[in-house]
Amino acid sequence: MAGRRKTSPKTIAVKERQTAALNLRKAGIGLREIARQLGFASPSGAYEAIRAALAESRREAADEYRGVMAARLDELLAVAWEGALAGDLEAVAAVLRIEERRARLFGLDRREAPVKVAGLPKLEKAADALAVVGGLLERATAGELSTDEAGQLAGLVGAFVKMAETVNLEARVAALEESQREKGDA
């Protein structure tokens, strides 16, 4: 459904058809008959619709569970909060545990998944940065990376270039100083 709004008439019709296929399957109807009744081109179309409906129902059930758990955590927090503000160290510990649980429940402490970008040139020296950033741009325009991901990676490339330039500058200054010392000794 990428690119379609969740409330467009077409999206709603697809979801309703998927739900109907799931309900028929739950009633014991075979895939061929479901395909025939709902106008799928083949039993595999009915099967995919059923899978999509099941995935959606699992997401909805998980979201509902998160809501119930969040409400319970809110109730517990209300009980412990006053004690924590009054300086009760056990209540403070309870508040922290409740907030840790909430963070896990909603994935707030989760690290971002690493971005995998294959086929870019190896970044060994500052001169390689142009080709690497060009590759990131190509992948972003092709939709393989989001613009945020490409921008963050380009920022890392920029940091690498600054560090490489600093190391290079330090080496050049050290060489000049050594050359001056040698001239002074001569």
Kindly list the characteristics that best describe this protein:
186 residues; mainly alpha; 6 helices
Explain what the structure shows.
This protein is mainly α and about 190 residues long. It has 2 domains: about 10-105, no CATH class; about 125-185. The chain has helices at about 10-25, 30-40, 45-85, 90-105, 130-140, 145-185. The longest helix is centred in the middle third of the chain and has 43 residues, at about 45-85. The chain is flat, with a radius of gyration of 29 Å. The N and C termini lie far apart (about 80 Å).
Please trace the helix and strand order, writing H or E for each element: HHHHHH
Unreliable stretches covering 5 or more consecutive residues: none
Give the percentage of residues in beta strands.
Answer: under 5%
The biggest sheet amounts to: none
Strand-pairing-aware structural class = mainly alpha
Domain module tally: 2
What is the average per-residue confidence, as pLDDT, rounded to a whole number?
A: 86
User: What is the overall silhouette?
Assistant: flat
Question: Number of helical segments?
Answer: 6
Q: Find the count of extended strands (DSSP E, 2+ residues).
A: 0
Fraction in helix: over 70%
Q: Tell me the Rg in angstroms.
A: 29 Å
Alpha-carbon distance between the termini?
78 Å
Question: How would you summarize this macromolecular structure in one to three sentences?
Answer:
The chain is an all-alpha fold and 186 residues long. The chain contains 6 helices and no strands.
Please outline the helices and strands.
Blueprint: H1 9-26, H2 31-38, H3 43-85, H4 89-105, H5 129-141, H6 147-185
Helix pairs in contact: 1-2, 1-3, 2-3, 3-4, 5-6
